[in-house]
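thought: user wants a sequence for this fold. calling inverse folding tool.
action: design(structure=
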C-alpha cells in the first residue's frame, strides 16, 4: 500500500470509528461465525426481535484492498432499526489474494448463511462490495436471492483506469469476469441501484449502464440518483445522526418490503 493510500486508510478508519460510537444495536443479538478456515473468513450475524424478518447480507467496500466488518456496525444498526436482520461478512483482500479468491469468499459466506436458513435473502453492498453482491445476484438462481441493493457500485469499469486493478483482477483471461454488466440476464432477481449525483469516485454512469443492460435483456432493474450526494455520503446515510431523515434508508426499506410482499405470492 502506498503512502497516500495508507494516510487515506487511517482517516477512513478514524471516521468509521466515530460513526460507530453512537451505535446501540437495540435488543438485537450478534452471532460471529466462521465460514472458512482463514481469519478473514468470518461474519457477524445480527438478529432482531420477532419472527419472519427479512435478512440483508451487506458487503462493504474498500477497493478490494481494505475493510473490516466491525467498521460497519452502524449499517447493521440502521437496518435492524427498520425491521431487517443483517449479516456482514469479512473476506480476504488484495494483495494477499486476487479477485478470484475474493469473490469466492463472498459466495462462500452467502452459502454458509443459506445453509442455516430456509428463507431467501437480500444482497446489498457499497462500492466494491456492491460489485461483489451484484455478481452474486446476477450469476445465481432466483430461488435464494430476493433482490440486490447496490450503493455507489462499479459495474462497468473495463478497461481499468486504476493501475492496481490490472493486478487485482488478473489473470487477463479473468478480466471480463469482474464486470457485472457481462452477467445481465432476464432471470436474475430485481436490481435496485442507488447512486449519488456528485459521486466522483464511482461515477453514476455505472448504475445507469447496468440498469439499461439488464432491462434490455428483459430483467428488472431500477435506479435512484440522489442530489448533492457523493460516494461516501451514500453510506453515511446509515449513520445514526442522519438515517431518520434519509431518503436512501426509506427507499431501501420500501424496496425490501415490496419484494418480500411479492415473494409471499410466488
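)
observation: tool returned 266 residues.
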Amino acid at each position: 500500500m502506498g503512502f497516500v493510500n495508507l494516510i487515506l486508510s487511517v482517516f477512513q478508519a478514524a471516521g468509521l470509528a466515530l460513526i460507530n460510537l453512537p451505535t446501540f444495536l437495540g435488543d438485537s443479538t450478534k452471532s460471529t461465525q466462521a465460514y472458512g478456515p482463514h481469519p478473514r473468513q468470518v461474519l457477524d450475524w445480527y438478529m432482531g426481535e420477532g419472527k419472519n424478518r427479512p435478512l440483508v447480507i451487506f458487503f462493504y467496500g474498500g477497493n478490494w484492498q481494505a475493510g473490516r466488518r466491525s467498521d460497519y456496525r452502524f449499517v447493521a444498526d440502521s437496518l435492524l432499526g427498520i425491521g431487517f436482520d443483517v449479516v456482514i461478512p469479512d473476506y480476504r483482500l488484495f494483495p494477499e489474494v486476487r479477485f478470484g479468491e475474493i469473490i469466492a469468499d463472498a459466495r462462500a459466506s452467502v452459502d454458509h448463511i443459506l445453509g442455516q436458513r430456509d428463507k431467501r435473502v437480500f444482497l446489498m453492498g457499497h462500492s466494491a462490495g456492491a460489485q461483489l453482491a451484484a455478481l452474486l445476484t446476477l450469476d445465481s438462481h432466483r430461488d435464494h436471492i430476493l433482490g440486490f441493493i447496490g450503493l455507489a457500485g462499479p459495474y462497468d469499469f473495463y478497461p481499468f483506469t486504476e493501475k492496481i486493478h490490472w493486478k487485482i483482477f488478473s489473470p487477463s483471461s479473468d478480466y471480463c469476469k469482474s464486470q457485472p454488466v457481462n452477467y445481465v440476464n432476464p432471470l436474475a432477481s430485481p436490481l435496485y441501484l442507488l447512486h449519488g449525483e456528485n459521486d466522483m469516485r464511482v461515477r453514476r454512469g455505472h448504475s445507469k449502464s447496468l440498469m439499461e443492460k439488464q432491462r434490455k435483456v428483459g430483467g428488472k432493474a431500477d435506479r435512484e440518483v440522489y442530489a448533492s450526494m457523493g460516494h461516501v455520503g451514500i453510506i453515511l446515510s446509515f449513520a445514526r445522526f442522519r438515517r431518520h431523515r434519509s431518503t436512501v434508508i426509506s427507499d431501501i426499506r420500501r424496496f425490501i418490503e415490496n419484494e418480500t410482499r411479492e415473494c409471499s405470492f410466488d
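thought: summarizing for user.
answer: Here is the designed sequence. The domain at 3-263 is CATH 3.40.50.1820 (Rossmann fold).
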